[in-house]
Design goal:
heterotrimer; A mainly alpha (419); B alpha/beta (799); C alpha+beta (177); B: alpha/beta; Ubiquitin-like (UB roll); Rossmann fold; seven-stranded mixed β-sheet; six-stranded mixed beta barrel; C: alpha+beta; Alpha-Beta Plaits; two-stranded antiparallel ribbon
Amino acid sequence: MISEKIPTSVDKFKAISSDNISVQESDDPGDRIVTLNMGPSHPATHGVLRLVLSIDGEVITEVVPHIGYLHTGMEKLGEYMSYHQFIPITDRMDYLAPMLMNLGYILGVEKLLGITDEIPARAQWLRVLYSELMRISSHLIWLGTSAIDLGAMSPIFYALQDREQIMNIFEETCGARLTSTYFRIGGLREDIPDTVIPMIEKFLKDFAIRLDEYQNLVTGNPILINRLKGIGCLSKETALSYCCSGPVLRASGVNYDVRKARPYSGYEKFKFNIPVYQEGDSYARFLVRMDEMRESATIVRQAIDAIPAGPVKIDRTDIILPDKHRTQGNMEELINHFILSCRGFNAPVGEVFSTIESSKGEFGVYLVSTGGEKPYRLRVHSPSFLNLSVLPAISRGSLIADIVAIIGSLDIVLGEIDR
Amino acid sequence: MADIAKVRLTIDGISTEAEKGVLLVEAARRIGIKIPVFCSHSKLLPLGACRICLVEIEKAPKLVTACTTPVGEGMVVFTRSARVVKARQGIVEFLLANHPLDCPICDQGGECELQDVCFEFGRGKSRFEDIKRNFDNKYGRIKLSPVLSWVNNRCIHCERCTRVCHQVVGEDHIGMLNRGDKAMISTFQFTQMTCELCGNCAEVCPTGTITNGTVKYKDRVWNLTPNPSVCLLCSSSCATRVWTDLKGKVTRVTAPKDEQDCCDFLCAKGRFSFDADQGEQRLREGTKITSEVAETFQQSESLQPTVQAFKALAKDSGSTAVIYNSRIANEEAYLVGRIARTVLKTPHVVPLENHEGLTSYLDRFSGRQSTSKDILSADLILLVDAPLARETPMIGYFVTRAVRQKGAALYTVGPEKTRHSSMGLAHHWNAPGASKDFVLSLIEALQSRKSDASAEFNKIVDAVQGSRQMVIIAGSRPLAEGPAFIRAIESLSSKVANSKVLMVPEGGNTLGAMLMAGSGMRVPGWGSNVSQNGCSVQEDVLGAIEKGSIKNVLLIGEDLQEGLINWPRWKTAFAKLANLVVFDAFRSELTSLATLAVPVRSFHEFEGSVLSALGEWKIARGSIPGAVGQSMSRLLLKLESELGGAEQSFASVTSEVKKLYQWHVSRATEAVEDKKSADSAGKDKSTGGNPGKDGVFLLIGNDLYHSGAMTLRGAHLGQFLNRSLLMNSADAEKMKISNDARVQLKIGSDKVSVAVRTTDDIMSGCCFLALNSLSPDERRWFGGIGKPLTAVIISGGAA
Amino acid sequence: MITEILKGLSITLDYFFKPKVTENWPAEPHKVSPRFRGRHFLARYSGGQEKCVACYLCQQVCPAKAITIESEERPDGTRYPTKYEINMIRCIFCGYCQDACPEDAIILGNTLEFPTRTRKEMIYSKEMLLALAPEGHNGKQPPQADTHCPHAYQKPQKDSQVSDNIAKQPTERKEKK
C-alpha cells in the first residue's frame, strides 16, 4: 500500500520551475529542430539500422543513417578462408536471398579462375531456376514486411505462406531453408532430387493465383497508394549519381538490369521483361517489385519446362569436389578431394569484378588474388548499401511516417550493408 | 679455382644462364619455374626413374627428364607445352594405378609430394578399374621398427630412401626387393631395422610409405607450426624445424627442406628425441633452499631470488667459480662470460667438457676449418680417430656423400673401424692416444719412407702425396691429446697443398660456447682487472672446492649432472659450498642440491645462435609456445642490469657476438702467418700409452642413439641403448669370453659389470663402452670424453 | 475506396474458410526433407566399427572451426579418433564436414530441435555423436559398408595382424677370420 503519492516528472518539473518561466515559440527555425533517434532496435528499420532524424515538428529536415551494427568482418574473414569455405559466409550477407549471394560470389571466383564458359549447361540452368525462386522469396518478404510497416496486417501472412513453399523447395534440394550453400565454384553441390520438380510446379500454380490476390489486396489498395504515391521521389540523375541499382533504379526510369545488360549463367536464353517505371516514387518501386515477381515466375516456368540433361559439376576435380562415390573408389579423385578439402585450389594471380542482379540490386564481388588458396582482398559490392545512401536525399521534407514507407520501398537488408 | 663456364639457355621463353653441369631442374628452379620431381633430390645423384620431370626440348625427338639433363648452350626448353602436360598426366596416372586409397589414414596427407603433384598436374579423373597391387601379405605389413612406420602399398619406387641410405648415410640397410609390380623396399630378409635409425628415409619419402612412427596417426601437418631451431645434441648443429601443435606442444622434429645449403637430413638423436624435454623430467619452477627448507618460485613472477643469489656470488669474487656446458647458445655463453668477469669478477670460468686441444684449435683454426663444401669437393678424406656416425652424424653424411657421390678417396685411422671404414679404401690401426704420433710419422713419411711401415700406412702416404684437395677430420680423442695434436695437424696441413682441417668435438655448441664465454681465450675488453690465473678445467674446480678456496659455484647449461666427472665426489664437495646456483632445464640430484635452481629453456626451445663444427652460424628462433620461461639470454640481460650492468637489448647482444666471432677469425688468420708453432710440432713427446700386461684401453663414447643423458629421457630413443662392452674378437677368444657373456670391467679400483659383444671392428687391446649406458654413480672413474683409460677385463663376472 | 476495401476483405474472408496451413508444432513434429542439414551424428559400419578414421578433413574444411579432433593408433593398427568434439554453438550447419568426409562418417541428420540450458552441453563429444546415429538414418543410406573401400586396414587379415607381425632380429653373421 503506497501511502505517499509518487511524484511524476511533471510534478518534479513544476517543483523546480517557477511560475515565471514561460515557453515561447521561437522564430529561429534552428531552434525548432529536434533530434530523434530511430534506434537500431526498431521494427520498421528492417534490421539494425539507426537513423538519426532531425525533425521540425513532424517534418524531417535531415536523416543520417548509422550502420555497422551488424558488422561481422566478413570481408576480412574472406582473407583467411579458402574460396570454397567462404560460400556459407555469403549466405549470411543478404540473408533473405542467400542463393543470390552465393551466385554473385561464385561467379566472381569462376571469372577469376577463367572457367565461366566451362560450367555445364544443366548447372547454369538450375542456377537460374533457383536464383529466380530466391528472388521471388526475397520480394515476398519485402512485400510482407513493407505492408506491415504501413499497417496492413494480412499480406505478410500470405507472403510468408508462399515463401514457405519456396523454403520447402530449398530444403528439399539442399537441406537448408534459408542459408542454402547450394551452389559451388564450378557447378552445384549435387543434382536436384526428383521430388523437387512437382513442388515447383505446385508452387507456380499457387503463386499465379496469389499474385492476382496481391493485386487485389495490396496493389490496388487506396490506403497503400496514398501512403506510397509521391513519397520518396528519386530522380533519375540522383539515382545514377548515388549508384543505386535494382528496383530502386528501375523505378526511376533507368532500364538497367544486369541480367539483360551483361547476361550471366545462361540468362540470355530466357525470355523475360524488365519492368521500368518513370515516377521514381515509393509506389513505382512497389510496382516494379510486384512486376518482377511475375517476371521471375515466368522465368521459373521456362526453366522448369526445359532443364537440360548432363552433369551439374564442371569436369575439373581440382576445382570442385568429385562425387562421393567416385572419391571413395578412385585414386585421383580421392587425392583431389583431399587437397581441395584441406587446402583448396590455387587461384591464378589477378583481379576481377563481377556482378549479378540480386533481388536488391547489383550485387557482386571484387576479388584480388596474389596466387594461393585464399584471396588477398575480397570486397563485396552491396546494392543495399548504395540504395540506403540515397535515403537522406529522398526523405528530406517528408514526414516521419513516410520514412517508414521509404525504407520499406528501398528494400534494404542490413546483413548486406554491414557484412 | 677458375670460373666455371656459363651457359645460356631459354626456359619457357625466359632467357637465363647457368653454370656448365647444372641440371635443368635446378636451372628452372632458380628462375621460379617449378618442375615436379619425385626421384630427384638436390642432395642425391640423379636417377631419372620416375619420369615425372619430363620436359620438351626444341629439336629433341623425345621428351627428356630435366633431373638428369644438364644445361646446354642455346637450349630451348618448354615445361608447359601440350606434350609435356599430357606426359605428366600419363605418368601421374601410372603412379596412381597401384596406389592405395589411403589418403584419409596416411600420415603424409597434406605434406605428400604425390598428392601435390597429382593435384597440380594430374588428369583429375581416374580410368583405373582393376584390382590394385596389394602387399597385404605377411611381408608387406611387417613392423620393421618401433620408430618408423612402413606401408609398402604406397611406394612409388622413386628409390629416394635406398639412395639416401646408400649415398648420404652410408648404412646400406634397405634395398629394393623383387621386380616388376612385386618390387618392394625392405630390409634384407625382412628383419628388424638395426641401422642407426636416422629416419632420413622417412624424411625424403615423397609418399607415406615410410613415415615417422613415433607420431603415427597423431595429427595433421596443417595443425602444426614449424619453428626454426638448431639441434644442440652434437657439434654438427643441424638446423631443424621443431613442429608444435595447436596446444603448443612439441610434436616432431624434421629437417628444413628446400634450403640451399646442407641440412635436408637429421640423425636419430635429433629426430626422435623430441619428447626428451617434456614431462616430469623438466625443471619448471625455480627452487631455492634457505636454511634447509626448499621453496619453489616461478621465474616469470620474480627475478629477485636469482638476483639475491648472484649478489651473494659477487660478494666474494675470488672464491666463485662459473661452470658452463656446451648446450647453450652463443649469446648465452657470451653473457655468462661477461657476467662472470665483469659482475662476479671471477677468474674461474670453466667449460664442463674439457677438450684440451680445443683452445689451441680455436685459436689457430677459427674460420678456416674445413666447411661442408670443402668436404664435398675433396678428393681425399682422412679420418683420424673420428667415429663420425656415433658422435656427429651430419658430418659423417658429408663424408659419405663425398665418397659415394663424388668419388673421393677415404682412409681411416684409429683404434676403431667405423662405418666409414667400410666405405674407405684402407684402415690403419692406430692406438688410442697416439693420433699425434700418427700425424708426425705421416709428415716424416712424406719426406722419406720407412721400410717397416704397414701397407695401409703406405697407401695413405701415397694418397696424401697425390691429393688435389685433402680434408683431415679428427674426433674428440685426438683433440684430448692437447695442443700438441693441433700443432701436429697444423704442420701436416701446411706441408700438403690445398688441405683443410676439421676437428669434431663431442657436445653441442662446443666451439661457440668456448669462444664466446672466453675461457682460456683472450676476449677484448673483459676482465682486464681480473687475473687470468683461474681454473681451466672442472677437475681444478673440484680440487679447489675440496681445499676450501672456492666457496660458491654457478653451474649454467643443460643436463649438467651428466657432464660432471665422478659425480659422487662432486656431491660431497657441493655439500661444502656456501652457494650453489644451478641453471638447468632438467631435474637431477644436482638441481635438488642447489641452493638456487633456475629453470631454463631446453634444447628445442632456446633462442640464440649456434656455431657448428663446420663453421656455420645457425639461428634458433626460440618461438616454441610452451617454452619454460624466457630465453636464458634475456634472463641474463635482465640480471645484469639489476646487478648494476648497463641495460642492453638482445639484438645488440647478437651483433656483439657476431663481431666477437669475426675477431677470433681474424686472429686465427693472423696466426697462420706465425710459423713458429707449426715447426715446434715435432718436439712434442709421444702421447701413446701402454695399457699394461693384462689391461686394455677402454674407449668411451656416446651410444649410437644417444647424446649425453638428454636423449635417454625420451621414450622413443630410450628403448635403444646398447649397454654392451665392445671387445676385439681375437682378444675375447684368447680370454675365452664368448659373445653375450657378462664380464667385470675393473677400472682403477672400481668395477662395473657389463655384457660383451665381440667384434673385429675394434683394435686388439682396446674395448669400447658407451657412457650413456652407465649411471652417474657407476662411472665415477670417467675422466672425460676423449681420454682413453686402461682397464682390466675379468671374465665370468657376476651380473 | 469502399470497393477496394471490400475486395481485400473478401480475400481474407475466403482464407477464413480454407484449410489452414499452420503446422500444429510441437504437437505434430515438423517433417523434414531427406537432405535436411540438422544435428550431426557419427556413423558406424554394419559390423559395429565406427567409420571415422580421424583424417582431420572435416576439422580443416569447417568454416566455423567447430570441430576438434585428436587421434591415435588402435592396437590392431587402425586409425581412430580419441577425441571428436563438435561445438554446436559454433556450427553453422553448412554441411561441409559431411561433404568433406571421405568415409561418410560425419553426417548431418534430421533433428532440428536440440536446445540445452547451458553452453557446455552444446559441445558434443564423440560418444554423444556416436550414440545419436539413428537406425538406417532416414534415407541417408551408407555406402556398402565393408566392401566399398579397399583399404586393408578395415579388415585386419588373419595372418597379418600388424601388432603381432614384428620383424625378427637379423641373425649375427659369423665374422670371417
